[in-house]
Amino acid sequence: MRTSISDDRNRRGKLRDFIASEARRAGFDAIAVTRPDSIPRAPARLKEFVANGQHGSMSWIAETLERRAKPSVLWPEVRSIVVLAMNYGPGLDPRALQSRRDRAAISVYARNRDYHDVIKGRLKEIAGKIVARAGGDVKVFVDTAPVMEKPLAEAAGLGWQGKHTNLVNRDFGSWLFLGTIFTTAELEPDDPEPDRCGSCRACLDACPTSAFPAPYRLDARRCISYLTIENKGPIPVEFREAIGNRIYGCDDCLAACPWNKFAKAASEAKLAAREDLKAPGIADLLVLDDAAFRALFSGSPVKRIGRDRFIRNVLIAAANSGDASLAARCEALIEDQAPLVRGAAVWALSRLVPEDRLTAVAARRLPDETDAGVRGEWEIVLRRKAPEPA
Predict the structure, then answer these.
(1) 28, 42, 247, 318: least CB-packed within 10 angstroms?
(2) Which of 102, 137, 143, 195 is catalytic?
(3) Is the dihedral of CA 134, 136, 142, 146 positive or negative?
């Protein structure tokens, strides 16, 4: 019996070493293993998040609640979960771009190819080699599937979920893409990583919209990443100024983490930022039609939100720039086919032109406006521009 147990452990160890070797060959920077039952607190936390409405309009989270919180419900045959991480560190603090108000800030992760495509293809390669070597079955997931990668990564020892709810790693800070391989193979699990945030609250204090009601708790409805990406409607007025020039996502809570001092810039070309997406000009982005938008963001995660949502975001950045030279382009977008764009253009114009010009544009455009939301935007800005009663 002792020989059998020893042989079994030896096989597991060799398979684990093989997976780690293949992961490094595929460009992953860290790998760890956990069990499917290693996140027992996740179901209650996720249920509370949804019950409080803090998931916003992301209905798929509520719809997949049980599968998302318990890996064994998603796939009952799973015995081990391999969590893999890939560094996408920018090398420089992305918040420096916020002072250049004529430029647009795109979240670091979205400045090149869609990481889902990069990572999933490599996970499939590794998974295929696991099956070829050990048999059984495998499934691979990136974050489009109902899998809670961050709690699993913490349980596996790749890092800990910081107060900003993202994974923090001692070697890579907050800049890691995560993917998982579910397997029927039995692998020895790694020990979890302890929370090393201590009394630090840099990430919480860095949030422009106060999206963290408490440490380790996120209200997505206030998060700039949610507002500029997942939110399909107008951006609430209360958050528009705080968004600044961020047109796709927000890196502030990640960039503020002191553990980033150990992070290394991503070396792989597929993850390094495209030059044209590091600091694109707001003026150039405002003129994108659907075809030009698709061409510019081909292969990029930005493409998924579509041209109308993207231009909505750029108009908010234009409004916050204070650059009156952008007014003509904003005014032209008041005639756009998409109500979402027209409404954002109204608000942007109101921030860039004097009252008499805004009133003149309203006199021309408002009588023909049929969309209630856009008319509401006009009412907001005209009321704000009107003089206070004596």
Answers:
(1) 42
(2) 143
(3) negative
pLDDT tens profile 142-172 = 987 889 999 999 999 999 999 999 999 999 9
Structure-derived torsion over alpha carbons of residues 28, 32, 38, 44, reported in degrees to the nearest 10: -30
Q: What is the residue-averaged pLDDT of the chain?
A: 93
Quick one: pLDDT at residue 339? 98
Region for residue 136 given its phi and psi (left: phi exceeds 0; alpha: psi -120 to 50; beta: otherwise): left
Mind listing the pLDDT tens digit for each residue in 292-330?
Answer: 999 999 999 999 999 999 999 999 999 999 999 999 999
User: What are residue 250's phi and psi, to 5 degrees?
Assistant: -155, 135
Residue 235 has pLDDT above 50, yes or no: yes
The pLDDT value recorded for residue 1 is 46
The CATH code belonging to domain 2-93+111-183 is 3.40.109
Q: Are 29 and 172 a contacting pair, CB within 8 Å?
A: yes
Q: Between vectors from CA 306 to CA 302 and to CA 307, what angle results, nearest 5°?
A: 100
The domains of the chain are located at 2-93+111-183, 281-390
Q: How many residues does the chain have?
A: 390
DSSP, collapsed to helix, strand or coil, labels residue 71 as helix
Backbone angles phi and psi of 17, in degrees to 5: -65, -40
Other CB atoms closer than 10 Å to residue 189's CB: what's the count? 16
Task: For residue 347, count CB atoms less than 10 angstroms from its CB and return exposed for 0-12, middle for 13-18, buried for 19 or more.
Answer: buried
Mean pLDDT along residues 380-386: 80
- CA-CA distances (angstroms) from residue 273 to 103, 117, 236, 247? 16, 16, 30, 16
Q: Answer for the pair 255, 165: CB distance below 8 angstroms, yes or no.
A: no
Q: Tokens 């969590």: give the residue.
A: 83
Neighbour count for residue 91 (Cβ, 10 Å): 14
pLDDT digits (tens, 9 = 90+) for 14-54: 999 999 999 999 999 999 999 999 999 988 999 999 999 99
User: CA–CA separation, 83 vs 180, rounded Å?
Assistant: 5
**How far apart (Å, rounded) are the C-alpha atoms in residues 187 and 79?**
8
Q: Which two tokens stand for residue 73?
A: 């419900």
143 is catalytic: yes
